[in-house]
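Marked as duplicate of an earlier ticket. Keeping the data here for the record.
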Amino acid sequence: MSSSDRTNPRAVVPLLMLVAACGHFNRVGISVAGTERLIPVHGIAPDKMGMVYSAFLLAYTLAMLPGGFLIDRLGARTVLILWGLGSTVFVACSGAIGLSVSEASGLWLGLMIVRSLLGMVNAPLHPAAARTVFDEVSANSRALSNGLVTGAACVGIASSYYGMKVLIDRFNWPVTFLVSSGFTLFVTIVWTLGTRAARPAASPSQADSTPPSVNLSDIGIVLRNRSVMFVTLSYMAFGYFQYLFFYWITYYFETIQKRPASVALGYSTMITLAMGVGMVGGGWLADHTPNSLPPRMRRAFVPVLGMILSGFIFELGLLASDSQVTMIAFAIAAMAVGTCEGVFWTTSVELGGRYGGTAGGLMNTGGNIGGTLSPYLTPLLGTLFARHYGDDMGWRLSLATAGAIVILGAALWWGVDGPVDSNPNEDDDSAESPFAMASADISSQI
């Protein structure tokens, strides 16, 4: 796609940011409802509520690869419209269940079903956003654009902590979900109309052309590509570490370090926002990596540096006795690991070429496997270590394990080289991208 045929990136990137923030507000909001009402008022046991959270993640992970295939088959814009419509329905269903069912077991079962369906329709969100950036944004701005989109997701998460609580206190939780559903429908309409208005009118030749056919058998081509698999494994390590900040950092400050609940929540919010800042900064840095570096090193520079720094700084934070020092170290670590996010998405889609949605879906499958293991293994390891070293040191060692995993994940970038497609990017400006340059250097080997 030539630059003249693209949607205006000044329009499409803010729209993608709005979509990502909305998706993650809906994703995390259930945990606020659980803490504020479902557990203490409706009597759903914490472990049962945890199963509701995991139901979303499990369906989200299982649907990720099929969702990536749909992106390549139907187009990213269409899939994001379907995301919005499906999210509108299932977020509303969450509220409807609360209005119609009061008994804990029935409420739990209904939420298990609805949250699974919501996880399924949310699976293509990030791969579709990254594919849109690949299709619509010039090569030398893609990492920054992906960083802005994923940074907006962090804003959605951070705003859900206080936004959902305010709405729940005012309207109760079922009505809050109906309000969220209405907002999601609004975002879907804005995305649909905004992307239509931003796209230039197609010429007759463009209108008659069709995208290359992508079949189910093509998924095997992606699975057999070494570079995509190394990115996926590295993103799995990244996901294991990143999800600690979403699920266990508040618990660590409040329960292990004995900080007041309001303080622990404030720490978690600041750490999440710091991660979002890192995502934007890392995207900019990746797009401006010095041309003097070899193309393969240009591609790996930001994620390798970010993952190593985040792991070491996180470990240093665990050694601090002052919780404020720990929070600052964790925030810096979150910012450092956030710098990698945009590069992961840019790389996976550029490596995939015309299978970019599938490649992005595969990478995010790996990330969510790591993210699903993290909430389970972290307390398990903490309990095992606590038997020998006490609760405080047990949790520190469990979190330190995650820091070591993200550092090991950085090493996997040295296995990333060539694209799935021998001609993944026909853009006029593809040579400007360090990612595309690295792919082009070894494409003859694929």
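See parent ticket for discussion. Residues 216-446 form a domain with the Growth Hormone; Chain: A; fold (CATH 1.20.1250.20).
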